[in-house]
């Protein structure tokens, strides 16, 4: 099975949808309420699955959520087997996805640079206006 085949995309989508619901059912208090499944990549042989998750909160909440999900792997895998009918139920690997936090950080940096440029342009305009008045 090729990486970008229709079958692979369909399996990844079904597993992502199922895992999103299953993770909400996990009763471990360490798993944060704002945990999202960002992407799922099931290996072509259906033996392994990488699950990229995002957690709203600080570093401690991310670590606790990752620990809670790793301890609930058996439950999550069993529920996945009941919901998605695959030849093999893949072994799950949870990976923290920091792309949202990275995007927010980059947006803030861009806004800061734009504000700084606007301030410099404003100061240049004030200097130019004052020198024009002095020439008259």
List the helices and strands and how they pair.
Elements: H1 6-25, E1 35-42, E2 48-55, H2 59-71, H3 73-83, E3 91-96, H4 99-135
Parallel strand pairs: 2-3
Antiparallel strand pairs: 1-2
Helix pairs in contact: 1-3
Q: Can you tell me about this structure?
A:
With 136 residues, the chain is of the alpha+beta class. It has two domains: 1-97, GMP Synthetase, Chain A, domain 3; 99-136. Helix content is 60%, strand content 16%. Strands 1-2-3 form a three-stranded mixed sheet. The longest helix is centred in the C-terminal third of the chain and has 37 residues, at 99-135. The chain is elongated, with a radius of gyration of 24 Å. The mean pLDDT is 86.
């Amino acid at each position: 099975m090729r990486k970008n085949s229709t079958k692979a995309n369909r399996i990844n989508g079904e597993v992502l949808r199922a895992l999103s619901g299953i993770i909400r059912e996990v009763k471990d208090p360490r798993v944060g309420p704002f945990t999202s499944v960002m992407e799922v990549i099931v290996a072509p042989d259906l033996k392994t699955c990488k699950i990229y998750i995002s957690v709203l909160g600080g570093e401690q909440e991310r670590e606790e959520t990752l620990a809670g999900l790793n301890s609930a792997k058996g439950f999550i895998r069993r529920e996945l087997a009941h919901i998605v009918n695959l030849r093999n139920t893949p072994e799950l690997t949870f990976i923290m996805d920091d792309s949202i936090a990275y995007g927010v950080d980059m947006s803030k940096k861009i806004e800061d640079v734009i504000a700084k440029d606007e301030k410099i342009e404003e100061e240049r305009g004030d200097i130019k206006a004052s020198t024009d008045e002095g020439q008259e």
